[in-house]
Automatic annotation (TrEMBL):
Signal sequence region: none
Domain of life: Eukaryota
Organism: Dichomitus squalens
Name recorded for this polypeptide: Epoxide hydrolase
All residue ranges annotated as the Epoxide hydrolase N-terminal domain in the record: 6-114
Pfam entry (one): EHN
């Protein structure tokens, strides 16, 4: 039986006062005439959002909304790292034997990414499967405890995620993620696939570049890049993104502690850092000021502070000296993938086969990095298609009630 405890979010008045005081005292930089987004987030945007955060954004209203969700915490023992108290949403379907689904967020997202999915995934219908949804805050994010010593990397995160599901009584479950949700999914499936994770789905299906020894046909196809426009365009776009949009990655993967001082002390600095990614990585999603500040406030009021989460970049890349998938390999656990056109981190679609056994693919006309928030109906449609009766992953977790 689970020993999870109900979680009620209660930011103190003192913390709210400190935030407002810091926003009152904020000092803004100058800006070049006509710079637009070329040099980073425009000054007018940050000033508007900072003023809204200080004078009009109602944290208490949003806090009450979150407290209407089924939120819990659970102590999870991690080998070599002691116990971590993990925050999560556990929204069960009315269908008793619905499919257990673990939803894992990324950066600069949080458990908030799942909110629009919950009513769709848990809906009961004779036409599609229903899901019990578990959406944790990764260690160091939001209201989960952070690791206290170095070396907490991919398999440690995977251990937390799997033990959480087992603690809730889900011996068999399916998995969905993008961004770090995808990366950690690779580790989780490598470690716990088949026995516990019966199938998984990614909306950011990236992995290593194919080699001749691992995937000879994909490798040979890659060599046709000079005459293969599709491969050439995708790779060129990926390289350009790496040149122009990955400064944050290098900093967080090499010197997260140095960056932590500004993020922990300056709400305006944190706002600009995250807001840039919300805009640049989405597909022209019409972010409201309240939505932006909800996401950023969760970072500001996070349990371990707004910068603890960035250490995941350092740990997964060993200080930016390796790729993020060290010690992982291809697996035969059924994999579904969704392609959203404005996902910044894209590789040729056929390279998804280097990750695992691809059984379901979907392509969409709209959507970016935050697919669950930007295009929730599309993402849920893909999951329903993958796990529905007659779908390629139907029955991987027995649905005794049918639908």
């Amino acid at each position: 039986m689970s020993s999870a405890k109900l979680f009620t979010l209660a930011v103190s008045d003192a913390e709210l006062h400190l935030l407002h005081r810091k926003l009152e005292l904020a000092r803004f930089p100058d800006e070049l005439d006509g710079a637009g987004w070329d040099y980073g987030v425009p000054l007018a945007d940050v000033k508007r959002l900072a003023e809204h955060w200080k004078d009009r954004f109602d944290w208490r209203k949003f806090e009450a909304k979150l407290n209407n969700l089924p939120m819990f915490t659970q102590d999870i023992e991690v080998e070599g790292f002691g116990s971590l108290n993990i925050h999560f949403i556990h929204q069960r379907s009315e269908v008793p034997n619905a499919i257990p689904l673990l939803f894992v967020h990324g950066w600069p997202g949080s458990f908030l990414e799942v909110l629009k999915l919950l009513p769709l995934l848990t809906a009961s219908s004779p036409d599609h499967p229903s899901f019990h949804v578990v959406a944790p805050s990764l260690p160091g994010f939001a209201f989960s405890e952070a690791p206290r010593k170095p070396g907490f990397s991919g398999y440690q995160y995977a251990e937390v995620l799997n033990k959480l599901m087992l603690s809730l009584g889900y011996q068999e479950y399916v998995y969905q993620g993008g961004d770090f949700g995808h990366t950690l999914g690779v580790y989780a499936v490598n470690k716990f696939g088949h026995k516990h994770i019966k199938a998984w789905h990614s909306n950011m299906p990236v992995y290593r570049v194919p080699t001749f020894s691992s995937h000879p046909l994909l490798y040979l196809e890659m060599l046709t890049m000079p005459i293969n426009k599709y491969i050439r365009d995708i790779i060129s776009a990926a390289l350009q993104i790496r040149k122009t949009e990955f400064g944050y990655f290098t900093l967080q993967a090499t010197k997260p502690q140095t960056l932590a001082y500004s993020h922990s002390d300056s709400p305006v600095g944190l706002l600009a850092w995250i807001y840039e990614k919300l805009v640049k990585a989405s597909d022209s999603y019409p972010w409201t000021d309240d939505e932006v500040l909800e996401w950023i406030s969760v970072y500001w009021f996070s349990r371990a502070g707004p910068a603890a989460c960035t250490r995941i970049y350092y740990e997964l890349t060993h200080g930016n000296t390796t790729d993020m998938f060290v010690g992982t390999k291809w697996t035969s656990v059924p994999l579904g993938v969704s392609y959203f056109p404005r996902e910044p981190i894209r590789l040729p679609e056929q390279w998804a086969h280097t990750i695992g056994k691809v059984v379901h693919q979907s392509r969409h006309d709209r959507g970016g990095h935050f697919a669950a928030f930007e295009q929730p109906e599309a993402l849920v449609g893909d999951l329903r298609g993958m796990f529905r009766r007659g779908g390629p992953a139907y029955g991987v977790v027995p649905d005794k009630d049918g639908y």
